Amino acid sequence: MNTNKNSNRHVYWNPYFGGFLLGLIIIFTFYLTGRGLGASGAMKSSVVALVDGVAPTHARTNAYYSLFLSDEDTPLNTWLVFEALGILIGAFISGGLAGRIRWRVQHSPKITSRRRLGFALGGGILFGLGAQIARGCTSGAALSGMAVLSVGGFITMLAIFGSAYAVAYFFRKNWI
Amino acid sequence: MGPIIPNGLIPIEWDSIIAIFIGICFGFVLESSGFSSSRKLAGVFYGYDFAVLKVFFTAAVVSVIGIYYMDYLGYLDIRQLYVHPTFLWGAIIGGVIMGVGFVAGGFCPGTSLCAVAIGKLDAWVYVLGIMVGVLLFSEFFTFIEPIYDGYFLGNITLMDSFDWNPYWVIFIFSIIAVVAFALADVVRKRVKKVFY
Amino acid sequence: MMVKKKLARFLSFRYVLLALILLILAGGLVMLPKVEKQEGIHAEQLLNKAISTERYVSTDELSDKIISQDPSFILVDVRDPQSFNEYSLPNAVNIPLRNLLDEEYEAYINQTQYDVIFYSNDNFYADQAWVLGNRLGYQNLRVLKGGINEWYNSIINPTVPNEQLAAEDFELYSTRKAASMFFGVMYPEQNRVEEPVIEKPAARKVVPVKKKKKRPVEGGC
């Protein structure tokens, strides 16, 4: 790509290479632990822990939080939370090696930072909601589900990308 | 014979350490493939960058082929693996909502964590949003519960529901992936380049 | 220069090559000869279970359990129905060995709530039932050591110890005698004349517990 020097920060791995390694990691994960990868589970655990810390009685009576609360352990002591910590560390190492670490808001030049942040918040809320309803996000449900040919994994994957393509037109200004 | 931890071949205490280690690898690969950039991720929906499709599909194909080879060779018992449960409408509705969130926010949870690690403020806001979403879901759980718990079809795989031979499924799946890659390259050449 | 050109030509084909490799690997899965995998318990595990002392229940333990109305076990008689009707242990369920795998009986032996104690005339057929059950991965299977014969010799008609024997033997004898009275055997020293009650109460109802699939791992995202 003949972009200027500044945007050459975006030199990433060949996607097939990345995908190959990611596939190996999934195999390795299934081989060791019998389960797939995940990401939104860690955020769910943090929310449960947070609510439990702020309003314990509310958390105990709520039908959803109480699923993840037990008396002897914190909801944060789960596999996915440790894995999410690992993701942060791993991404930090990779970003650090490639010199991509700095505070910034990445957005299309056609929109303002404020607009980008607003849409990020809205998108996050929707994704959080959807990930709970579908019991997993792109990594937990779709990617790890597809690795074992789970019907739910395929349905979730098709639903995510189907609806994303369907509405992409309305969000085009944010990206191109 | 794997999976190793559920079969007690190494102590359960390793679980958390392995979790962090796997997370590090996962995060490293995601970030290095460019998944910490929301504009690169969103490219798949506008045809200017198909990294998501390529990484995602390659990973799925490689992992499913690898897992079935390991099963065939007897290193891994595929029946012991966790199969994501199928809640038909939960998966569809949740997936549709996630799709909108994906285009609006430009991340999915895993990739947003990568972007958080390298200091993208939009990712920080996005993660905050996810947490708000989880909070909303939990608070309104009683309303959503019929969808969440309904239409449960079990922890089924394509073989269970359609009685397909898994090996043919994988073979056809790989052909679809290769065709998708080729199409993606054709589309990308036609779409106006976007620099980000 | 030549090398570079060759390399460039090679590189332009690399994706095609990679795709081919992928498809060959995936196709390999289809082509590979399918070997029927041996399912169920491994030989070593079966051996371990077979030599474990847990496997047998002695007649004394069993009579103790029955008398104290221990609810934790099911007695399964693997003899044919005829012998079962002639004589059997209280509350036993009759599952003839030839019908062991029938669906209607699966609920009795394929569950985790109760111990299953197999017995036959000796422990020959009961042992076979035990092996079959273990092969299918059923839990908590036991065998009555010596079967009905041993039951008869030790509980119903215990040998009177002669006087040289140790005190424990006398104790054992009196326990067994007491047990046999419980099971309806009359002794001359008993004054009360009582019809030996040979009633066969209905077999214990078993709530079929769906065996959980082995799924030790938990969830995704």
Structural summary, described in words:
The complex is a heterotrimer of chains A (176), B (196) and C (221). In chain A, 64% of the residues lie in helices and 0% in strands. Chain A has 176 residues and is mostly helical. Chain A folds into two domains: 1-102, no CATH class; 106-176, no CATH class. In chain A, α2 crosses α4 (79-98) and α6 packs across α7. The longest helix of chain A has 21 residues, at 113-133. Chain A is globular and about 50 Å long. The two termini of chain A are 17 Å apart. With 196 residues, chain B is mostly helical. Chain B has one domain (12-190). Chain B is 69% helix and 3% strand. Chain B has helices spanning 14-32, 38-46, 51-73, 88-105, 109-117, 121-139, 141-149, 158-162, 166-190, and strands spanning 86-87, 152-154. The relative contact order of chain B is 0.15. Chain C is of the alpha/beta class. Chain C has a domain at 54-146: 3-Layer(aba) Sandwich (Oxidized Rhodanese, domain 1). In chain C, 44% of the residues lie in helices and 8% in strands. Chain C has helices spanning 2-12, 14-31, 43-51, 59-67, 81-86, 103-109, 124-135, 147-156, 167-182, and strands at residues 56-57, 73-77, 93-94, 115-119, 141-144. In chain C, α7 (124-135) links the parallel β4 and β5 (141-144). Residues 192-197 and 210-215 of chain C have low confidence and may be disordered. Chains in contact: A-B, A-C, B-C. The interface between A and C is medium-sized, with 19 and 8 residues.
Concise account of the structure shown:
The complex is a heterotrimer of chains A (176), B (196) and C (221). Chain A has 176 residues and is mostly helical.
Please indicate the count of domains of chain A: 2
Structural class of chain A: mainly alpha
Count up the helices of chain C: 9
Mean pLDDT of chain A: 87
Give the overall shape of chain C, derived from the CA principal axes. elongated
Strand and helix map with partners:
The complex is a heterotrimer of chains A (about 180), B (about 200) and C (about 220).
Chain A: H1 15-33, H2 40-54, H3 56-61, H4 79-98, H5 113-133, H6 138-147, H7 151-168, H8 172-175
Chain B: H1 14-32, H2 38-46, H3 51-73, E1 86-87, H4 88-105, H5 109-117, H6 121-139, H7 141-149, E2 152-154, H8 158-162, H9 166-190
Antiparallel strand pairs in B: 1-2
Helix pairs in contact in B: 1-5, 3-9, 5-6
Chain C: H1 2-12, H2 14-31, H3 43-51, E1 56-57, H4 59-67, E2 73-77, H5 81-86, E3 93-94, H6 103-109, E4 115-119, H7 124-135, E5 141-144, H8 147-156, H9 167-182
